[in-house]
Amino acid sequence: MIFDNHNRPISYLRLAVTDRCNLRCFYCMPAEGIKYLPKQQVLSYEEMERVVRVLARLGVSKVRITGGEPFVRAGLMDFLHRLSGIEGIQELSLTTNGVLTAPHVADLAALGVRSVNLSLDTLDRDRFKKITRRDELPAVLKTLDLLLKAGIETKINAVVMDGQNTQDLIPLANLTRSLPVDVRFIEEMPFNGGGSHYPVLNWTYRRIVDELQEHFPGMQKQPGLPFSTSTTYQIPGHQGTIGVIAAFSRTFCGTCNRIRLTAQGTLKTCLYDDGVLDVRALLRSGSSDDILTDAFLHAFAHRPVNGFDAEQNRSLRFGGSISESMATIGG
Predict the structure, then answer these.
(1) What does the radius of gyration of the chain's CA atoms come to, in whole angstroms?
(2) Residue 265: CB partners within 8 Å, gap ≥ 6?
(3) Residue ranges of the chain with pLDDT lower than 70?
(4) What angle do CA 237, 239, 244 make, to 5 degrees?
(5) Which of 51, 106, 154, 172 is buried most, with the most CB atoms less than 10 Å from its CB?
């Protein structure tokens, strides 16, 4: 196990395999999409596998595959098979929008993928089309059904957006009544390719909790899990649970154990930093595993104390503007 300069363990890698996506979600990118990376600028699967092997030797034991949308990249399942065989990797999971996932659910279960995070911001087809700019809700619901039938732990991620889907909090929360799912409501962040949509974030985690408790007065806070970004609640009589993630308020930074690697090979030790290490350059310059290891350790030893610190550091250098799409960062 390795620790950062604030004595937090580094054990969880979020690995983006692509910046491309088949949806155009309001909170993630502009309607016209983003300028995607040329193929040669994206890490190959072989390069990604090498990075995971190096990080596994340092103590990373969990890998979550993200995008963009992971299933738009060809060869993903073969890559997952290779990752599952790396010594030290104990947990392999995936974040997906569910549009292309259904045909792969049985293989994911056979591979031992422990959990899948499914992006689903509304159960209303018209609002889904408005938010994602695509009419794909039936495909996502089919994926949800197959994941649950396959026995894969499923978390539904819903970004709460003022004027877009706040009326969906209760219908989504009601999924937990009869389904063994964790429905997680996430504060909107400014990673949409153009900066924050609102001068002030009205739907903070506190307001989300208040709204839920008004409708479910018996809702009870559950003990927190180590390193969790979510505060979990149980509604009496419901099979599943509800989570609230203070992604913009950043209340969980003190226990953060995760790092990110973007599809182009940029290491982020905080979601809000602008990249702290060009891993692709090291890989393609012929650096040995020892050099990669030293570079990672140096980055971990200079990690910001929290997301506000990371954002301030980038602001000093780049004028304070956050303009990336979440698709380029990797979920």
Answers:
(1) 19
(2) 43, 47, 278, 279, 280, 281, 283
(3) 190-199, 315-331
(4) 100
(5) 51
Residue 267 to residue 275: CA distance in whole angstroms: 6
Q: How far is CA 283 from the centre of its chain?
A: 25
Distance (Å, whole) CA 107 – CA 90: 18
CA atoms within 13 Å, Cβ hemisphere of 311? 18
Type of residue found at 296: F
Q: What is the pTM of this model?
A: 0.91
Report the alpha-carbon distance of residue 228 to residue 232 in Å, rounded: 9
Amino acid of residue 37: L
Long-range contacts of the stretch 310-319 (C-beta < 8 A, 24+): 310/269, 310/270, 310/271, 310/272, 310/273, 311/272, 311/273, 313/273, 314/272, 314/273, 314/274, 317/274, 318/274
For the record, the structure tokens of 203 come out as 């739907």
CA distances from 221 to 81, 133, 154, 317 (A): 37, 35, 20, 40
Q: What does the mean pLDDT of the chain come to?
A: 92
pLDDT recorded at residue 33: 72
Please give the sequence-ordered ranges of beta strands (E in DSSP) within 204-257, or none if there are none. 220-221, 230-234, 241-245
d(CA 119, CA 191): 16
Which of 21, 30, 107 shows the shortest CA–CA distance to 66?
21
- pLDDT, tens digit (0-9, with 9 covering 90-100), for 145-190: 999 999 999 999 999 999 999 999 999 999 999 999 999 999 987 6
228: tokens are 């969790």
- Within 10 angstroms of residue 322's Cβ, the number of other Cβ atoms is 18
